Structure formats: structure tokens, C-alpha cells
Amino acid sequence: MTRAQLLADDxxxxxxxxxxxxxxxxxxxxxxxxVLERKIxxxxxxxxxxxxxxxxxxxxxxxxxxxxxxxxQVIPDTADRKVYFLAPIMSxxxxxxxxxxxxxxxxxxxxxxxxxxxxxxxxxxxxxxxxCSSMGVYGIVLAGWASGSxxxxxxxxxxxxxxxSYEIAMGLSIVAVILYSGSLSTGDIVDAQHxxxxxxxxxxxxxxxxxxxxxETNRAPFDLPxxxxxxxxxFHTEYSSMKFALFFLAxxxxxxxxxxxxxxxxFGGYMAPWPISLIDGNYFNxxxxxxxxxxxxxxxxxxxxxxxxxxxxxxxxxxxxRLGWKVLxxxxxxxxxxxVALRAIRHDQSISSGSIxxxxxxVxxxxxxxxxxxxxxxxxxxxxxxxxxxxYPVPPLDLRVPDKENLKPRVRRRRERAAVGAGPERGAxxxxxx
Amino acid sequence: MSAMLLAQEAATHVTTGxxxxxxxxxxxxxxxGLGMIFARNAVHSALFLVLTxxxxxxxxxxxxxxxxxxxxxxxxxxxxxxxxxxVLMLVGRDSSDxxxxxxxxxxxxxxxxxxxxxVLIVAAVSRALSSVKxxxxxxxxxxxxxxxxxxxxxxxxSDWVFPFELTSALLIVAAVGAMVLGYVDRHLRGRRTQxxxxxxxxxxxxxxxxxxxxxxxxxxxxxxxxxALLPDGSVAEESLSRLIDATASExxxxxxxxxxxxxxxxxxxxxxxxxxxxxxxxxx
Lengths: 434, 284
Hints:
The structure holds two protein chains of two kinds. By secondary structure, chain A is mainly α. Chain A is built from 17 helices and two strands. Chain A has a two-stranded antiparallel ribbon with strand order 1-2. In chain A, β1 and β2 (113-117) form a beta hairpin. In chain A, α2 packs parallel to α13 (289-311). The longest helix of chain A is centred in the N-terminal third of the chain and has 33 residues, at 12-44. The radius of gyration of chain A is 30 Å and the shape is globular. By secondary structure, chain B is mostly helical. Chain B has a domain at 1-96: Four Helix Bundle (Hemerythrin (Met), subunit A), CATH 1.20.120.1200. In chain B, α2 (16-38) packs antiparallel against α3 and α3 runs antiparallel to α4. Chain B starts with a helix and ends in a 24-residue tail after the last helix. The chains are: A mainly alpha, B mainly alpha. The A-B interface holds A 80, 82-83, 86, 122-124, 127-128, 130-131, 134-135, 137-138, 141-142, 144-145, 148, 153, 156-157, 160, 164, 184, 386-392, 394 and B 41, 43-44, 47, 50, 66-67, 70-71, 73-74, 77-79, 82, 85-86, 89-90, 93, 147-149, 199, 202-204, 209, 284.
């Protein structure tokens, strides 16, 4: 039976169990991520981090989770009430929805019922995740607008522009994977990686996906929407209590989603990594073992998220947008054309592999020659005389800064100061003599 | 022949799940459409339209067109409506529409065209209900084998590749044209570098060469409402934002007028009473 048929056979209780487990997974992974992030970043910065609640401070998230909903709600006077309430919901629900198409494992038996560790396997699974992230942007934009004050509005607009720009790069990086696997379904993409994982077969796609996944989730070094030095708190400046907690939850669930999606697309999903896959005819790729590999791979990406936050400084907004639109998108388009050309050539039986090598070599040589022919950027002449004269005091153009070597030693200067009667002429004389 | 009969039987028979989904999503979509027309705040209108589009997307999913459904959600709700929202938000949250007719005779034309559209829709729907044969879109054999999504891809890139590329070329030309027109003066003058800007400031092309002075920070107070002091002890007027003084009085102005009884009566040019400027009335 295929994956979709197995899932279609699921009884209602099994679907309910899966849905509840996915909900719990999102909430629990958020709590784990919060305490882990604080601990790991603290360790990277040589400080203890949270160490008060529970043994070693590991219960910090539980304290936070209890505290946040019970805090006082402050709703600004200028807020648009209905939209203000709607925004956190709009950002949380799509984040959880995206979990439903991620394949966590192969065929297993739950209470005697054969099924796949996945909620649904749609023929357009990849699009589900893109649709969810595009719906999540509404939460951010509406939160910024409904707060009725300029800082959140600016933060919301910046955030939305960022997420939409990087969603384009993300969508394009998935195209190569779809071309290789020949399917839009997440389960089929994992199955197609049996012969080799896509992170090395489609390395440029993976790199672009990875960069855009950090940009998409608004995380450091791309956390411009909530750049605390520029925007106070970004789109959720005016949110407090449970509503703020929902935004927090959505952000962390989104991180887990994009990491899990990256694992699915480029790292063989739930398949066992290479040395382990050789043991006992790939025994560790059956039953419940794949769950371990899947969560292990996802955890590595989540760690990299934290690592990036502890390491890299924030980009400036225009640099960030330039990276997205002028580097990632064009590189991606060229790469897609290359992948399509390679696949077309490989399908064509009449072209031998020797001629392919020759064609590629000629193309590379031509490209290098064209690159050499390109003129350098014109360097503007440096000796421009700045035009001034608006009535403001401006130092003269031929101003000469006194030379440091001509400064007299201290002892001599003190002696000169003692001889007060000498007058300024003598000092000036000495200067000219030197 | 038997396959076709089977397909027809499947098409005429509506399952319980489908019926439930329709009776939830249909009214939602309708409510969204009505809300879009009757909401007075432009952003609320846009949100109601999002609700309609989402409901339609889910209806497509239920009707075994998953690709169409998700493309509807990604493209229409995710991209196009987001663009609308951007524009509305930048225009300003308080701009609501007024009932004044700017175009002469638009009600007549709106009625005529509305009836025409209704006739067209009713005709199309009745034709769909009576004479169009429905195809089975589910399963591997949908649309003649290999499933729905694969067939859409094949059709798009083989039979319909020319119209498809033509549409994308049209969209790109539109986008590039908008950008070229939007940046005309920048193209003519070139973008000013930071150095050129500084020189222009000192040449006197701007109001003042430096930013405005910040508020005063003293031992007694560091509020934004505290003015900075000039060297001679007088208040630096430029250090105070106009908003700080004006906001409270502007807000209370209306109530003060209402109490004093000087509030103007209902105006034919405004939706809400007492607000003579239709651009300023917050009716959300």
C-alpha cells in the first residue's frame, strides 16, 4: 500500500491521537527551545544563564509558561480591538497546521493498526508549508497595524516585507528538489532520497534554503523586525500577557517547522545517517527508530539557529534586502536552469557523457572569458573640491594640521611658560627657525 | 463506459463530509463577501475578503483540487491581499470612505452592470448544475492518469505553455514598468551618496544642516516633554515635538465642543455626525 492509502485507512481515534501529539510537540518543543536557547547562548557568552528555577535552572520555561498568561493585559487606547485580538491567533494557527504534512517516520504499527507517522500526505504537501508561512505573515502585519502606534506598524511592515522576500527565495530553492524527486508530496521527497541526500546533490539549493529559512523566521542575524536598538520591540511592542505568549509560541514553532522541513527536503527526512544505515541491512531504518534520526537532524538545525544568534551581528535592512533580491533569487534562478539542463541532457540518450563534459568545459571557459571582458567599476576621482558656501563656518580647504613631530618636549615647554615676560614673538621666532 | 458511469455516480452523490464542509465554508465565504462590501474600515474590508478567499481555497481542496486550493491560498491571500493590506496601512488607518457620489450617475450604472453580472452568474451556475458533466478528480487516474497535480503540470508546460509564458511576461513587464515610472527622478538625477547629501545640507538645500535637537535631559526630568534649554537659558522650541502638546488637546477637543453644545449637526458629506472632514472620521 502506498503512503496515502495507508493514511486514508486511519480510523478516527488514530487521527485524533496524531493531531494531539502534533499540538503537544509544538508546545513542548517551544518550551524546550526557550530554556535551551538561553542556556546555550549563555554558555557561548561565558555566563551561567538561567539557574534559579528547578535543578540547574532547567524548569525556567515552566515558570515562564505559568507566568505569561497570568500577567496583566495592557491594550492600547488607540488599538483596533477586533483585529488586535485576531492577530496572535492568525500567527499561531498556521504555524501548527504546517506540522500536519511533515513525515516523521515510515510505516509503524500503533495499537495493531498499520499507519505512517504523518498526519496527512497530500500530493501538494510542500505547498501546504508555503501556504502556512504566507498566512502567518497576516498575524505580523495585523498586529503591527492594530496596535495603533508607529513602532509596531514599522516593525510589522518591515517584518512582512522580510518574510515575503525570503519566501520567494525559499520557494525557488525548493523547485530544484521537486525537479529531482518528481513530486510535491513530502513523503515522496523523503523516499526519493534513498540513493543520496539532496544537501550534497543540490548543494546551492540547500545553502539558499538555509539562509532564507533564517530570514523567514525573523531570527538573528536577520531579526530586523524586532531589532531592539531600532524598533523597541517590533510588531509586538504593544502586546502583553497571553497574546504576547502566542506570538512567542508561533515564532518558536515556526523555527521547528522550517528545521523539520529542511530535514525532510535535504537531509533524507527520517532515514538513518550513513554509517548507521549500513548496520544489519539498514535495520535502524525500520520501526520506531527513524523518529530518533528525524528529531536528531531537526535538533541540529535548531542548535544552529541558536549558534547563529550567539555569533553573528545583525545586518542592516538594505543589506539584508539586497542579499535576498539581488543574490539569493538570481543565483537560484540560474541554478534551476542548470538543474533542468542537466536533467534534460541525462534523459537524452544520444548525448554521451564525454560530450557533456566538453560542453560544460566550453561553457565555463566562455563564462570566464566574458567575466574578464567586463569593465571594472569606474573609480571616481578622489580630488573633488567640496562645494560649500551656505553661510556656515567651514574650515578652509588648505588647512594644515600641525605636525606631531614639531611639538616641543614637555620639559622645555614648562620652562618656556616660566619665562612669562618673553612674549609671544619669541615663541613664534623659534617656530620659524625650526 | 462503466468507468464513466462510476465517475458520474460519484459526482452526483455528495458524501456527508463534503456536505458538512460546504455548509460551513459556503456561509463563511458569503459572510466574508458581504462583510467586505459593508465594512466601513478599509482594512476590515480587506480582511473579510481574505476570509472569502480562504473559504474558497478550502472548498477547492474538498473538491479534490488540492493544487488549485493551495495556489489560491498562497497567491491570492498570501501575496495579492497582502499587497492590498500594505497599501491600506500606509495610506493610514483612519481613512474611511464617504458616501458622497464623486462620479455622476454611478448608481444607475452600478445597478445596470450589477444586474448584468447577476444574470451571467446565474446562467453559468444553472448550466453547471444541469448540463456540465463532472469528472472524477480523485485518485491516480484523475484527468486521464497520473493524478491531478502531475496532469496540471503537464498541461501547463506542454499544451498551454505559450499562454502561460505570455501571462508571466505580462506580469514582469507590468512590475518593471511600475518600478521604472516610480523611480523616474532617481534615474534622472542619480542616487545621492552620503557625502553629496552632507554637502547639499551645508549648501543650504535643506532647512537645517543638522537633525533637530533632542529633548532636555536634566537631573530633575528626562521626559520627552521636557524642552531642551539654549545656552542663555531660554527654551529651544525645536526640541519639542508638536504631537506632545497637540495630541491631548486634539483628542479632547470634540468632547469639549459636545459639552459646550457647539458641535455641528449631521453633514451630508460625512458618514458620522459631527465629523466634518470625511478623511478624519474613525468609523472602525
